[in-house]
Structure formats: C-alpha cells, structure tokens
Write a structure and sequence with these properties.
By secondary structure, the protein is of the alpha+beta class. It is built from 13 helices and twelve strands. Among the domains are: about 170 residues, no CATH class; about 100 residues, no CATH class. The longest helix is centred in the N-terminal third of the chain and has 37 residues.
Length: about 400
C-alpha cells in the first residue's frame, strides 16, 4: 500500500471536508443534468419504452420534437411492403379538458361542502395506446392488468405525479371533455412537468368521439420479425421510402433526443453556470483542506526529507494523495446521486444518470482534486529537517 493511500486511510477525518466538497460539487452537476434529462425522457417515454424496433419520422426531423412529426396515413401500407415488418401503428397524441368529479354527500353541511372545495379542471395531454395484446404502442413496463383495465370502455390511467394536480385517485370518475371516464390505473415513471398526461386506449377515445381519423397521423412505430436486424431494416426502409420519410432504430432516436437537449439553449447556460459554481466550490474547499492536512503533517514530511527523500518525491506523494481524494469524492458523488434518484423516484420524478455524464463529471472531479493538490505544494517548503530539532 502506498504512503499516500495509507495516510488517507489513517487520517481520513482530515480529508473528509475535501471529499464532501467534491461529492457535493458532483451531486450539484449530476443532479441538475439528471433532472433536465429526466424531463426530456418523460416526453419520449412512450417511444423509448415501447416494443417498437423502428420509428419513422418526417425526413426533416432531427429528433422526436425537432422537426415535423405528422405523417400521411397512406404511408402505413407502404411500410408494410417490407417483408420484415410485422406491425405498424401511429403514435398518436390528443388533448382536452379534464375535471375531477366531487362525490359530495347530499346530507353534508354547507361548511363541509366548502371545505371540499370546487372541482379541479386542467388541460391534459393524452397518450393513446392500442390495447391489442402485444401491440407495438404498449410500453413494455405496462402490466397485463393495466392493459386489460384500459381495454374497458371510457377508462384512463394517470401518472402518480399528476394525481394531486388532477384531484383524482385510483377508481375515481372524472370528466374528459365533458364525458365521464374512470381512472383504472396509476403509472410510475411517466411524469410530465409541463402538462398533466393521461393514457387512454384508441377505442375509448373513439367512443368518446374525439379520435383523429384524418389523413395525417403521428410518428409510425414499427415492429419487425427480428429485432437484431433493426439497423438493416432501417437502411432498407429509408431506401424504399426514397426521401418520403426517415426511419430510425429506437436507440438512434433515443440518442438523438438526448443530444438535442444539449444543442445550445437555456439548458447549456444553466448547466454551464452550475458547473462553474461547482468547480469554484470544489477547488476552494479541497485546496484549503489539503493545505491544512499537509500543514498538520509537516513534521512527518520533514522527517522524510531528513531520511533523504527528495522534494520531487514529496510532491508526487501529495499529488497521489490528491488523486485518491478525488477518486473517493467521485465514489461519494455517485452514491449521493444514486440516493437522490431513489428519493426522487419515490415521488415519481425521474433523474436520469447517463453514462457519458457520469464519466465527464468523474474526470472533472479528479482534475479538481489534482489542481487543488498542485496549489498545495507550496506548503512543502515548510518541511525543513532542522525544524525537527526545535
């Protein structure tokens, strides 16, 4: 075991402030980025969690919400011309007014009725699924019981984060565009920070009289007979379409959606500002902590010099110690971020931890620790062997 590592393990309390500074700096950046990425994933969850192997958008689209989304309905039979295609369904969305229904006891007093308050009314977005068993529009994390419940007429499911906003709970009745529906399912992991979202079957929407049977539909979700051949099928469909559409594998579209969030705009400014604050805090606290720890052990460093250890070796010990502090700080940051994501998920909030973000932040924290170590090297000038005789 190296001297630097043994020093960190034996005197870990001296270095705890530096470790926590790095951990909190990492948590600040990872948490903020994870929330924004999670918000983006909530909008595209129906795509990323579907059983679709291929998604077809307009040729001008660069991501799910970047560019035109509507497709001519007549493209559906054209996609079926490919021999590997098993199913093609449009990913349609709708919207409307949603109002809860207050079950007021007719014998209740006026004060009791006033306490219950007025009904809540909100504009909602509707995600539409086809309840045919195994349909490509059914997210893979939907249970069979939920799909069976949504197969019943005039039924909806609501994400748990929207229950309070809409004023409903499982089993409640509500009004969608003035027509009565029943909440038969509560979803987890489908939050929408912009607008409450409900899920409804295409048949229920049609029976309510709000189905869109026009000439244009949403993105086409395609299931093929061999998912391992998705990349090949995408290339063949794009060639077959001759510029009429652009086919993506599900993973390609997910990557494009993620990258679209970081292509300029407010998100970059916010994350940039948070990163600067995290770096300043991390360097300042880590530097002062390492400096104080080295000063506390200055006699030990002086003893090493008295034994013939050169200043170059002492500097390497300090830099190695800084690297170990950085590695422990990275581990603590990941642990704190994971705990935060679990805490947030209990309230239905998605904090996405992308591998590339973990790598970037991890490397950044180690660099902060190394810079702090370099700034602390001047303290070694006080490690004079003559001081041991005082």
């Amino acid at each position: 075991m190296s001297l630097a590592l043994s020093t960190l393990l034996y005197e870990w309390r001296r270095y705890m402030a530096a470790v926590m500074a790095l951990a909190l700096s990492g948590l600040l950046v990872l948490g903020m980025a994870g929330v924004f990425i999670g918000i983006g994933k909530s909008f595209t969850a129906a795509i990323e969690r579907s059983s679709a192997d291929v998604i077809i958008l307009q040729p001008g689209a660069t991501a799910m919400f970047n560019g035109p989304m509507g497709m001519p309905r007549r493209y559906i039979p054209l996609v079926y011309n490919h021999p590997s295609v098993v199913e093609v369904k449009p990913l349609d969305m709708s919207g409307g007014s949603f109002q809860n229904v207050k079950n007021v006891d007719p014998t209740a007093s006026a004060a009791e009725r006033a306490r219950q308050g007025a009904p809540k009314q909100s504009q909602v977005m509707v995600n539409i699924i086809d309840t045919t068993p195994g349909s490509v529009t059914i997210p893979v994390d939907y249970s069979d019981d939920l799909v069976d419940a949504l197969r019943q007429p005039y039924t909806v499911a609501v994400d748990q984060t929207a229950l309070a906003t809409l004023g409903v709970k499982l089993g409640d009745r509500a009004l969608f565009n003035g027509r009565t529906v029943t909440v038969v399912g509560v979803l987890r992991g489908y939050p929408n920070m912009m607008q409450p979202t409900i899920v409804m079957s295409r048949d229920s929407l049609r029976m309510l009289g709000f189905a869109d049977d026009g000439p244009r539909v949403g993105p086409l979700m395609v299931k093929i007979d061999n998912p391992l051949q998705a990349q090949t099928v995408v290339a063949e469909l794009n060639s077959q379409g001759d510029g009429q559409w652009k086919a993506w594998t599900r993973q390609e579209l997910a990557d494009a959606n993620r990258n679209a969030m970081f292509e300029g705009g407010p998100l970059i400014v916010i994350l940039g500002g948070v990163s600067v604050v995290g770096v300043v805090i991390g360097v300042a606290i880590t530097w002062q902590t390492l400096r104080g720890a080295i000063m506390a052990n200055i006699k030990e460093f002086a003893s090493l010099r008295a034994l013939g250890v050169g200043m170059g070796s002492l500097r390497r010990i300090v830099i190695e110690l800084s690297i170990w502090v950085g590695l422990v700080g990275v581990g603590a940051a990941l642990l704190l971020t994971f705990g935060l994501s679990l805490f947030a998920s209990a309230f239905g909030i998605l904090i996405a931890m992308e591998p590339i973000m973990l790598i970037i932040v991890g490397v950044g924290l180690i660099l902060i620790a190394v810079v702090s170590g370099l700034l602390s090297l001047g303290v070694l000038k006080n490690s004079q062997p003559a001081d041991l005789l005082r």
